[in-house]
Design a protein that fits this description.
192 residues; mainly alpha; Leucine-rich Repeat Variant; 70% helix
């Protein structure tokens, strides 16, 4: 793996392209690979930009941190890059949809925001992207929004002190909780 990462900085564009594609297809150590692929999205060679986007698409949901860097490439001057980026959004969106229950609320919010930005560009009539790409992005966005709104009650407990109080009440009941605890809970939850 480290040998391939070194090749991402090779002076030969074909070597950089092949290294990016290989890293994308391997899919291992994505926390190391994704940050190394992101700079290739700004490469002067359109083939390298295209293959870096393709590799990020192959990585899937683990490449969610690259979505914001992919959005501007939907307006790239090269049609091959635009098509590769659109496919990357579709692949990453599908993977995010499948793994939505494992994502934090913040990760979901960021993913939805980036996918909506991509959809706005892709859906422009002059952008000339396929209707299936537009439809797929809409489906993934709706699925991620549904996952956001369907977060279980138990996941909201750590972030909301009022729910903590209610949860503790039902968990321990009034008889199992000493009065000083109730006083402390009341003081903590009391509006200021």
């Amino acid at each position: 793996m480290p040998q391939l990462i070194v090749l991402l900085e090779d002076s030969d564009a074909d070597v950089r392209r092949d290294a990016a594609l290989a890293l994308g297809s391997i899919g291992a150590e994505t926390e190391t690979v994704v940050p190394q692929l992101i700079p290739l999205l700004e490469d002067s060679d359109s083939g390298v930009r295209s293959d870096a986007a393709f590799a990020l698409g192959d990585i899937g949901a683990e490449a969610k941190t690259a979505l914001s860097q992919l959005v501007p490439l939907l307006k790239d001057s090269d049609s091959g890059v635009r098509d590769a980026v659109a496919k990357a959004f579709e692949k990453i969106g599908l993977s995010l949809q499948k793994k939505a229950h494992w994502l934090t609320s913040l990760e979901l919010d960021i993913a939805v925001s980036n996918l909506e930005s991509a959809l706005k560009i892709v859906a422009e009539p002059e952008a000339n992207f396929s209707q299936s790409t537009i439809a797929n992005l809409r489906i993934y966005i709706n699925a991620l929004k549904a996952a956001q709104s369907n977060r279980p009650f138990i996941q909201s407990i750590p972030t909301n002190p009022y729910i903590w109080g209610i949860y503790l009440f039902f968990l321990f009941g009034t008889s199992a909780t000493p009065r000083r605890w109730w006083r402390k809970i009341y003081e903590t939850l009391k509006p200021k």
